Fold this protein.
Amino acid sequence: MPDTDAGGFQERFYTSFDGLTLYARDYRPGEAASEGRLPVVCLPGLTRNTRDFHPLALLLSRDTTAARRVIALDSRGRGNSAWDENKANYNLAVEASDVVTACAALGVERAIFIGTSRGGLILHLIAATRPDLLEAIILNDIGPVIEPEGLARIRDYLNARRRPANWNDAADILNENHGASFTALGREDWREMARAIYRDTGGGPVADFDPAIAEALKSVDLSQPPPDLWGQFESLCRFPLMLIRGENTSLLSKETADEMARRHPNLIWHAAEGQGHAPLLHLSSIPAAIRAFLATCG
């Protein structure tokens, strides 16, 4: 597993069960600084990557009083992980298996997991199949029921996207698509989001995921509600659980969040004001809320 150093983290490469080269960012504060604290493992959304977690990972790994190792994963077909020739492998079960492989490759026996959107769905499966890996969970704008309206919106903007001419254009496109639900973001936030979503190819910004992932959404029948994961959510109820929900999200309804809280009476619910799907975890009061939750964990 070759490693290379980068800004604030090590780049780690490992191999999936079927031979794909997968990628992680490993933010290590040092044994003394993080002694006695479990690491945090971050799983991104459908077409997102490790860069989404970079500001939060720096905050947590450089915390002067409670530093933790933070690992962020690129799912297959996203970011620096290899694209899969078998497009059917872009599914929750395979991606959950990749997370288990990553933990083994990176020496993680137990951790606190943060799952954004699809990453949170993966955690529903891991809770049911490999609960020994989990100490506590933070779900970022996701639950066991996905609203068809929110999924349709994701499908439409992913498949209607145009390639930006430059980085300013990339920020403008994101603002056009998401500005109504992300009223808390300023101009610099949109630029930062563009750097997280797009890859610099030398010829301008390009979306940093296998287009087959967005293409597959076209065949989803949204006239019927997607299958729910309430059965798997019951497995999550065994662990400390924090839910971050975007104030303007269209993917996670308040009714679903209320039911999650009913089934998990100790659930900690944090509202991301002025944000939609999925909230940026390094903005406003969210980092402080995450640090407070982590302080109650191992």
